[in-house]
Amino acid sequence: MQKKVYFCRMILNYIWISLILLAVLFGLIQALCFGQTDIFSDILNSTFANAKTGFELSLGLTGVLALWMGIMKIGERAGAVNTLGKGVAPFLRRIFPGIPKDHPVFGTMTMNFAANMLGLDNAATPMGLKAMGELQELNADKQKASNAMIMFVVLGASGLTLIPTTIMAYRAQLGAANPADVFLPILIATYVATLVGLISVCVAQKIRLKDPVVLGTLVGLTALVGLLVWGATLLSPERLASVSAAIAAILLLGVICWFVIQAMAKHINVYDAFIDGAKGGFQTAVSIIPYLIAILVAVGMFRACGAMDLLERGIAWCFAACGINPDLAGAVPTALMKPLSGSGARGLMLEAMNTHGADSLVGRLCCILQGTTDTTFYVLAVYFGSVNIKDTRHAVACCLLADLAGAIAAFAIAPIFFG
Prior knowledge:
The chain is mainly α. 79% of the residues lie in helices and 0% in strands. Helix 8 runs antiparallel to helix 18. The protein is globular, with a radius of gyration of 22 Å.
């Protein structure tokens, strides 16, 4: 596993080095060919400014992260994860036909999926690794990924998340008028990514999509998402923004009330649970400082030398030639980075919001892209590496197909909600 995780970190290493060296090279070209000698001062100043921004953003996240991590801890102790797990168990048994009906891995997987949907990353990863270990015990060929392993990893990489806590926290920190206004667009886009990933694996593994439980679940959820999109097209952008914000607020407050009431019913000390969870908010915010500063400085240098603007103008020209809104071009770097590096995509998202505004179309689209899927190559490396799988078969193709579907959905949905 360490070798595969190291490989993923090397990808980010090369991206980081490339951004810095390209920035300096682009600056040299402008200085020598166009006499813009001030470009080097601009690049250097951007490193100081973005290092300060990364530090301030990380510390500014403390309050919001503490709040939501405290709330999630209440839900965890109240058994909300178990409740969600029981709800999806019948569906999981159909899409994992190779696993014995009453095998304990079903419980581990449902706990992992439920934790991911609630944004409980700290709980989801250990359960995911435990599930992979149990799936490996059932695997006949220990070097090759089983069908069940591939389905599990693709569903995990597709990143279905009900509560995008961190994204809302960043938006609040960067001055968004309503940090939760991307809640519904993210929910729609992440569902599309998960649906495409699921169907692609089912097709590859010849799993019966016509099973009543599978078909009923997929049709029902797809109809709900389609209804949301259809309703969005009937409203003006201003009215849609207010309705979307209201729905997001009601759903999020409903989740909080559900956690609290369920915890009270089980005689759990809600206040102590919140405090225990909130303590992790500060630790999380501090832990991301070096990663955030590193990527923001590199991206800032790339922007300061003019290369990012040139890239975005080139993409915008291609979009316009294809009849696509050129204003969306600024989000393409985030979409391309997302499968490769979570921290890199986060840095590009923050840089886009800093440059264009947290409530701009590009800023919101980058947030939707960030919340649509997980970091594909990291998930593949960690999960398969944990059980020493060397042949991942069709896992990579299905994961990247889900990434593509989620990105297309994000680009299609953002103008509807925020255009």
